[in-house]
């Protein structure tokens, strides 16, 4: 039994004047503890598929199964981390990280203590009473990660969470997120436009074709890269070859030769 299973996903956006096929014949499986990336040209339906997996969007056809069961965001099995941190600017950092626990009625002394400990582990000791505007972009994204993890979701969906950050902060957060997810044994799906990021962080990469989005090719990242931190993986000799291979495939898709 696969942890996450997508079966024959097909999605069409309807308007009064037209019908646009965003995704076609998407089937894939993700095992527990895996880190998978969706990569492809703009408009290929990567974020649409993430929304379908999260149950925020119902597919026109097909099904999504988690642990062989249908599910929804209402039962708190999914954590979602976006490009923007979406912290409430009028609430303190402590209040922000406890929002999910409060909404799910899991907030108590023990879960609060765990959340504050995780905040410290993220290198954010002493910011509890500060407001989001007092923190840097990278610090706010770390807060957003804490807020996502404290509800103990079974699956994390990451929609370009580092794309708004400067390069140095991005590389540091890649390492931090990868290490944290491994420590917690979390399963994650990353949507990104960054080939290097996908290679450095993933066990497997799904490359999507242009609209309608289909799985064009699957790349399995070799073990010698998977056992490294993302920063170390970027400096491994195998990284460049994989990058060039994926780059050529993506370029051929975008140029319309495939």
TrEMBL record:
What are the GO MF terms of this UniProt record? ATP binding; ATP hydrolysis activity
Signal peptide (UniProt feature, chain positions): none
Q: Which residues form the ABC transporter domain?
A: 4-231
Keyword line: ATP-binding, Nucleotide-binding, Transport
Q: Which PROSITE patterns match?
A: ABC_TRANSPORTER_1 (PS00211), ABC_TRANSPORTER_2 (PS50893)
PANTHER family reported in the protein's UniProt record: ABC TRANSPORTER ATP-BINDING PROTEIN, TAURINE IMPORT ATP-BINDING PROTEIN-RELATED
**What is the name of the protein in this document?**
ABC transporter-like protein
């Amino acid at each position: 039994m696969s942890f996450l299973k997508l079966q024959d996903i097909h999605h069409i956006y309807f308007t009064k004047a037209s019908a646009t096929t965003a995704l076609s014949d998407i089937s894939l499986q993700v095992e527990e503890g895996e880190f998978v990336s969706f990569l492809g040209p703009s408009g290929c339906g990567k974020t649409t598929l993430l929304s379908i997996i999260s149950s925020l969007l119902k597919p026109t056809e097909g099904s999504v199964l988690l642990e062989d069961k249908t599910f929804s965001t209402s039962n708190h099995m999914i954590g979602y981390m976006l490009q923007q941190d979406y912290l409430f600017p009028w609430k303190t950092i402590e209040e922000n990280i406890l929002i999910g626990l409060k909404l799910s009625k899991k907030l108590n002394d023990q879960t609060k203590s765990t959340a504050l400990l995780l905040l410290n582990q993220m290198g954010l000791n002493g910011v509890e009473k500060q407001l989001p505007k007092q923190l840097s972009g990278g610090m706010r994204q770390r807060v957003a990660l804490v807020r996502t993890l404290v509800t103990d979701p079974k699956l994390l969906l990451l929609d370009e969470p580092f794309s708004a950050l400067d390069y140095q902060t991005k590389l540091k957060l890649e390492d931090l997120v990868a290490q944290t997810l491994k420590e917690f044994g979390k399963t994650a799906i990353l949507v990104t436009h960054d080939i290097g990021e996908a290679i450095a962080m993933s066990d497997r990469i799904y490359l999507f074709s242009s609209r309608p989005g289909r799985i064009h090719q699957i790349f399995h990242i070799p073990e010698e890269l998977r056992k490294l931190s993302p920063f170390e993986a970027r400096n491994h000799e195998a990284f460049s070859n994989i990058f060039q291979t994926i780059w050529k495939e993506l370029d051929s898709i975008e140029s319309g030769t495939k």
